[in-house]
């Protein structure tokens, strides 16, 4: 990956993509971008191309699979869906995230006091 | 990388991004933008798609092949730029590899391949000999042969044979041709079956001068009789006598004398009195060892038989012995040693050629210092540089091998034609896949000689850089 991109950010985008696919079922890249945009309530101004680097990473690790389909405007589109090992990964990553965000939250609060 | 099973090509990826763009554009249009503005807005939102493609490319193993292809083309261009160097180096390699392959082809055909007979390893030749100051080889007489055959236990079968010449008349151009007198089991001992008709029957080899039958070689059939399919059953004139053609030997077989055109029964070689004369020695004997019998055992048995015959017939058989020797030794024994020496010699020639080329490369590496340093400064890793040099070497070696095969192709012919020793006529060396495979280790070693040379190049450049 390009240097300078925070691993945390990369990891969190992957986690968001996985969650989205887990919740929504098969989606194409555009759909994933819209869903993340919607959930983050426009807070996350996404450079939508990064969704694809995330999808490539996830597919390389076999956490998602893909197949060809037709988009809502009748164009060829690749639909991604989460795999079994992807679900397993999502579960452990979610737990990990909760733990770390809890820790970070406590540290940040302690500084305020 | 193994998770990447669905390797889709970059066109698919383009399509995917295009779909995304068009969906974004549609959305912006729905939100009230002008189509052109919507298109640019979509492009901005998607980000740098060129970078995306590169990221995707780097994730695929195929990249490795692409840079390999780059290196290959670069290596070929480098050769084209330094024509004099390239020509000298490739010619040196081609000569070294070509000479090696040519000799190996001949060795392979002449020595490594078994004789073209059935189970040739158990076939032996029996020579009569006589003890003078030294032991000298002689032929054997018909009565001796009959005693050897009937008294020995080490052999499955035995056949007397010898070359002779015949006046072939009754055709357009009468000619003197070579042939063989052979006992009846001769063909079955060698595993040779008539291609047309049959070979001799036991009764045709019993009574001197009674059965005038002849087996033609394929060569004689085609050369003397135009390949006439009706020749079997007809008669031909040999030494003024009508012989009935009973069969034609398979193509390539020219008897153990290797120049026969016709075969006639052994008992046609003389009249009754000649064949009864024990001192009338002129033929050789072909025999097949029984399964499990060795040449040493057979030799011991034949020594015993010879001394019995010497006691029984002191007038003709005093100091007469028998020598048992393998057919293989008789056929290729003379050429084995010179060929192996030649093979070893050209092996050294190849080594010298490789050393020369490696030195050439090393000399050239001085010139290339600048390029290598530049590449290293621009961020090429040690491995990447080494790989480039390796691929360039491989281009060399491949060109050298290709040239070598051409040299070998002609070299083999020259070698056969210019040879001072006579090769059996069944030896047809060809530079084929098997020979190439046999030579491969040598060629890989040659390639490695470069790699070592080049390895020094890149180490040297590192020292300079640091």
Q: pLDDT below 50 for ≥5 consecutive residues: which ranges of chain B? A: 1-7, 457-466
* Strands ordered across the widest β-sheet of chain A: 1-3-2
Spatial strand order of the main sheet of chain B: 3-4-9-6-8-7
Order of helices and strands of chain B: HHHHHEEHEEHEEHEEEHEHHEHHH
From the helix content, strand content and strand pairing of chain B, which structural class follows?
A: alpha+beta
Task: Report the oligomer.
Answer: heterodimer
**Count the helices of chain B. How many?**
14
* Fraction of residues in H or I helices of chain B: 55-70%
- Number of helical regions of chain A: 4
The whole-number mean of residue pLDDT values of chain A reads 82
Please tell me what the overall shape of chain B is: elongated
* Span of the ends, CA to CA of chain A: 39 Å
The gyration radius over C-alpha positions of chain A equals: 16 Å
Succession of helices and strands of chain A: HEHHEEH
> CATH superfamily of chain A, called what?
Winged helix-like DNA-binding domain superfamily/Winged helix DNA-binding domain
Largest sheet of chain B: 6 strands, mixed, barrel
CATH arch. level architecture of chain A: Orthogonal Bundle
Describe this structure in words.
The complex is a heterodimer of chains A (113) and B (466). Chain A is of the alpha+beta class. Chain A contains four helices and three strands. Chain A has a single domain (7-112), classed as Arc Repressor Mutant, subunit A (Orthogonal Bundle). Helices cover 57% and strands 15% of the residues of chain B. Chain B is built from 14 helices and eleven strands. Chain B has helices at 10-30, 35-46, 49-58, 62-81, 83-112, 142-151, 186-190, 218-225, 272-276, 295-312, 314-317, 327-377, 382-418, 433-465, and strands spanning 123-131, 135-138, 155-169, 175-182, 196-197, 213-216, 235-238, 241-248, 262-265, 284-289, 320-326. Chains A and B meet through helix 2, helix 3 and strand 3 of A and helix 1 and helix 3 of B.
């Amino acid at each position: 990956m390009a240097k300078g991109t925070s691993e945390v950010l990369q990891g969190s985008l992957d986690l968001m993509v996985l969650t989205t696919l887990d919740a929504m079922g098969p989606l194409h890249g555009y759909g994933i971008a819209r869903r993340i945009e919607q959930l983050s309530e426009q807070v996350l101004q996404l450079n939508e191309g990064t969704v694809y680097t995330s999808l490539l990473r996830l597919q390389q690790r076999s956490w998602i699979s893909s197949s060809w389909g037709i988009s809502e405007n009748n164009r060829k589109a690749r639909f991604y869906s989460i795999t079994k090992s992807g679900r397993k990964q999502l579960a452990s990553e979610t737990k990990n995230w909760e733990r770390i965000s809890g820790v970070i939250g406590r540290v940040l609060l302690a500084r305020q006091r | 990388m193994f998770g990447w099973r669905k390797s889709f090509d970059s066109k698919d990826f383009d399509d995917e991004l295009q779909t995304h763009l068009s969906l974004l554009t549609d959305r912006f249009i729905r939100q009230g933008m002008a189509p052109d503005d919507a298109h640019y807005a979509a492009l901005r939102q998607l980000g740098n798609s060129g970078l995306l493609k590169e990221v995707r490319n780097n994730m695929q193993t195929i990249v490795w092949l692409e840079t390999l292809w780059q290196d290959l083309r670069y290596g070929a261009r480098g050769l084209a730029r330094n024509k004099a160097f390239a020509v000298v180096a490739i010619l040196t390699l081609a000569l070294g590899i070509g000479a090696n392959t040519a000799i190996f082809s001949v060795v392979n055909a002449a020595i490594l391949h078994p004789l073209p007979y059935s189970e040739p390893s158990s076939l032996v030749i029996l020579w009569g000999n006589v003890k003078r100051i030294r032991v000298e080889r002689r032929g054997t007489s018909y009565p001796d042969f009959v005693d050897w055959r009937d008294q020995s236990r080490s052999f499955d079968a035995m056949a007397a044979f010898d070359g002779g010449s015949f006046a072939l008349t009754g055709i357009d151009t009468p000619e003197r041709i070579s042939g063989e007198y052979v006992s009846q089991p001769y063909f079955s001992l060698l595993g040779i079956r008539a291609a047309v008709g049959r070979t001799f029957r036991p009764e045709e080899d019993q009574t001197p001068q009674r059965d005038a039958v002849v087996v033609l070689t394929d060569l004689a059939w085609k050369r003397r009789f135009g390949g006439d399919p009706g020749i079997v059953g007809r008669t031909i004139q040999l030494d003024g006598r009508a012989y009935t053609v009973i069969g034609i030997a398979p193509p390539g077989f020219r008897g153990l004398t290797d120049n026969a055109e016709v075969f006639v029964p052994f008992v046609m070689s003389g009249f009754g009195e000649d064949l009864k004369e024990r001192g009338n020695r002129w033929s050789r004997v072909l025999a097949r060892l029984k399964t499990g019998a060795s040449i040493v055992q057979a030799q011991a048995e034949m020594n015993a038989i010879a001394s019995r015959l010497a006691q029984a017939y002191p007038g003709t058989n005093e100091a007469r012995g028998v020598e048992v020797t393998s057919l293989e030794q008789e056929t290729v024994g003379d050429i084995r040693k010179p060929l192996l020496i030649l093979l070893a010699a050209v092996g050294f020639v190849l080594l010298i050629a490789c050393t020369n080329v490696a030195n050439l490369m090393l000399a050239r590496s001085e010139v290339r210092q600048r390029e290598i340093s530049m590449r290293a400064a621009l961020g090429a890793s040690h491995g990447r540089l080494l790989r480039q040099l390796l691929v360039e070497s491989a281009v060399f070696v491949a060109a050298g091998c290709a040239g070598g095969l051409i040299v070998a192709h002609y070299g083999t012919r020259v070698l056969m034609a210019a040879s001072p020793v006579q090769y059996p006529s069944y030896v047809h060396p060809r530079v084929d896949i098997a020979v190439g495979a046999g030579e491969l280790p040598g060629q890989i070693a040659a390639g490695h000689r470069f790699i070592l040379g080049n390895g020094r190049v890149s180490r040297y450049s590192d020292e300079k850089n640091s």
